[in-house]
Amino acid sequence: MTGSGGSGPSRPDEKGWLDQPLTPTAPPQVYPDGTVPPRRAVAWRAPGHGKRHWALMAVAAVAVVGVTAALNTSRTDRATAPAPDLQGFHHVDDLCAITDTAPYLSAGLKLTPTAAAGPKYPLHQTQLHPAVDTMECTIRFSTAGALDRAADSTVRARAVVHKKSDPRPEFTARFETWTQSPLLAHDEITAVRGLGEEAYLVRRKDDRDARPHTVSLAVRHGWTTYEISWSRLSSLPATSAAKPPTTEAAIALLRRTAATTLRVLRA
Q1: What are the boundaries of the region Disordered (predicted)?
Q2: Do 138 and 254 have their domain in common?
Q3: Which of 55, 93, 179, 194 has the highest CB neighbour number within 10 Å of its CB?
Q4: Which band of pLDDT confidence, cut at 50, 70 and 90, is reported for residue 82?
Q5: What burial letters (b/e) apply to 206-215, b meaning 16+ CB within 10 Å?
Q6: What is this structure's pTM?
Q7: Is residue 216 part of a domain?
Q8: Residues 59, 185 share a domain
Q9: In terms of residue numbers, what domain contains 251?
């Protein structure tokens, strides 16, 4: 192809696929010594480069604002967290040591002797944590006149001092929804007055035997909860000499022990 004069190929009208021209628009200036200075490279920028720059700056600003808001919210939550309602309650190293066994001994029970191969009763453990202190105790009693250990009774106590969260809602909900479980549908739940700020009595039953084999008492006072239970085996020896406590007698024993223990935990 020739140009309008027919003397050579025509030059394209386009500058090329880059924004910059393919050839310099002016010849380079020659130094006096005849050398040609190097041509400064022109940085290529894609269209929209400025817009992306501002968009990135906007995203960074939003992130900073979000982090600042989260930190302020965290500090606000810590500032508004309620103070623990301990009311003087504290942990003890041995919950069994402050569990009053005199009522059980007066009722004709006696401490079960420890077997050589079995656990060493009374059993106790205490777990301490900045959020919660937990104490547990297990005591075994035997019935006078019983022929074997089938008439033994077990008393279990558990005290929890909550130091970071209020146990009120969960404590109440636990007993208000107790019988919703199919396995606990036959149990009896009764609110108890005169113990702590809130207390419930649970008589554990099943569909085969109307007599409760386990009775438990749960008490909440401030942010401290205390539970104590009495349980026995149902197959008692057929002897008139072995007379374990009745259910009502066991409930009276639990109430007395709970009241005594809570006073010591608060002292």
Answers
A1: 1-37
A2: yes
A3: 179
A4: confident
A5: eeeeeebebb
A6: 0.68
A7: yes
A8: no
A9: 96-266
